Amino acid sequence: MPKNTSLLRIGLFLLLGTCSLKAMWYDNRYVPMLDRQAAWIYDEPSLFEIQGFAATGYSAWGKGDKTVGIPEIYGRFDLNTYANAFVKLGKPNPLPTAWQNAAIPFRASGKIQAQGMIFYWHQAISEHCAFGSSWMFMNVNSCQRFHLNTGRDFNLQEEVTNLNLGLGDIFAIDSLRRQMFVDARFLYNESNQIGFGDMNFYFQVGKKWEYELKCRSVKAGLRGGVLVPTGLKPGLDSPASIPFGYDGHWGMYFSAHGMLEVKEDMKVGLTIDVSKRFEKLADHRVSVAGEPVIFGALIAPICINPGPTVAACPYFMLENVREGLQLGVAYTMIKHLKDRWHDAREDKTVSVDLKRSAETSEWGSSYFTLTAGYDFGKMKVKRSFEPIVSLRWDVPFDLFVTEQVVKTNIVSLGIDFVF
Fold first, then answer.
1. pLDDT of residue 19
2. Hey, CA dihedral for 118, 123, 128, 129, is it positive or negative?
3. Which residues contact 9 (CB under 8 A, 6 or more apart)?
4. 3-class secondary structure for 350-387?
5. Model's pTM, two decimal places?
6. Smallest Cα–Cα separation from 225: which of 132, 356, 319?
7. Which one, of 86, 101, 109, lies nearest residue 179 by Cα?
8. SS (H, E, C) 59-94
9. Dihedrals phi, psi of 333, to nearest 5 degrees
10. Orientation of helix 167-183 relative to helix 79-88, angle to 10°
11. DSSP 142
């Protein structure tokens, strides 16, 4: 084959392909499951992995690189705006007359702590084809806390209440907020969720070239997958609850991957993923007077058509740093585009603010990932089911597209069995 033709074929695979990549659902702004680059086992046809992980998040990035509370990725909470939502629903204004039409802003903070297990199976069919699946089980504890912004504790002067309040008034306002949440059918500001995440099934093709592009080897391929909505959905009675996938939406994705072994035990690669969830009709909280959608005063049937999610991940791996020790670093950038919300109510007498809900559905995140692993079979002439143990830390980082997303740190320990 002419050399230029070979380079062209490799280039097409690099643009369109993916190799042994453990794709999980990353289109979740709370606890994303990022890809793992198991670069040192690419020469093994099949594998099974068990991965335990722990995740924690105490704050989020809002618009304009600002650090905000986790609930505030949907906007600031103002009690007077919330009271106006009750009025639009035909209920009496729950605020005293003296406090109506005044700014009563709250700071909403929160935390998310999760522990879980991920299972991954990759099965080779032939030299160039494989299929696989991944699934997850997770426990999540989350909560929310509210603090009236009087200007004494928060340096956000543009959002300070313009009421002259005493200490008793502050307690009375918070008591009114709690009662309004009860009237909106919120039962909990804390949540404990245990269940499965969305399942992933895929088929892939790939190819390996020896001594091309001045490298020891070049690998690339193409993967297509289906995302099955088996994940636990957030409860409408708890704004602190989170989806374990993408809130019950089916989806599909395509993934591209290219890896260069530039010299022995040194590999660089790039993965590109594009996923799309399909539209679905379900009951959701909606904003009536501009309140954040997770605190929406009305529950209504809404048809949501999610926007696409795009992810890119360049990475660098060093193998055999010392007889089987592997080290790696990766950077993952994820961008989820705006969802489209459609009001499916028969009675639309009460207007709702779906534009605000759609705007806050757009988000982006960035992660640096540090990986260390040990391959017990790397130094053997012939592998015989020796495991590979790896430790990984996903660190959120404010770079490029980061906005309206939780700062979630994820630490995981995995064990791979190749065969």
1. 39
2. negative
3. none
4. CCCCHHHHHHCCCEEEEEEEEEEEEECCCCCCCCCCCE
5. 0.88
6. 132
7. 86
8. EEECHHHCEECHHHHHCCEEHHHHHHHHHHCCCCCC
9. -120, 125
10. 40
11. E
Helix (H, G, I), strand (E, B) or coil at 188: coil
Euclidean distance between CA atoms 305 and 311, whole angstroms: 19
**Single-letter residue type at 255:** S
How many residues make up the chain in this entry? 419
What is residue 37's DSSP assignment? B
Q: Distance between CA atoms of 41 and 217, rounded to whole angstroms?
A: 14
CB burial of 175-209 (b: ≥16 within 10 Å; e: otherwise) equals ebbeebbeebebeebebebebebbbbebebbbbbb
**Contact by Cβ (8 Å): 38, 248:** no
Share of the chain above pLDDT 70, in %: 88
Q: pLDDT class for 25, splitting at 50, 70, 90?
A: low
108: closest CA among 154, 139, 167? 154
Q: pLDDT-based confidence at 41, cuts 50/70/90?
A: very low
Q: Are 121 and 103 in contact (CB under 8 A)?
A: no
The count of C-alpha atoms lying within 13 angstroms of the C-alpha of 52, restricted to the half-sphere facing its C-beta, is 2
Burial 311-346 (b: 16+ CB within 10 A, else e): bebebbbebeeeebebebebbbbbbbeebebeeeee
Q: Is 91 left (phi over 0), alpha (psi -120 to 50) or beta?
A: beta
Distance CA 193, CA 182 (A): 21
- Residue 413's CB: how many other CB atoms inside 10 A? 13
Q: How many CB atoms lie within 10 A of CB 67?
A: 11
DSSP state of 295: G
Read off the tokens for 388: 């590979």
CA-to-CA distance for 324 and 61, rounded, in angstroms? 38
Contact 328, 318 (CB under 8 A): yes
Q: Alpha-carbon distance 46 to 348, whole Å?
A: 54
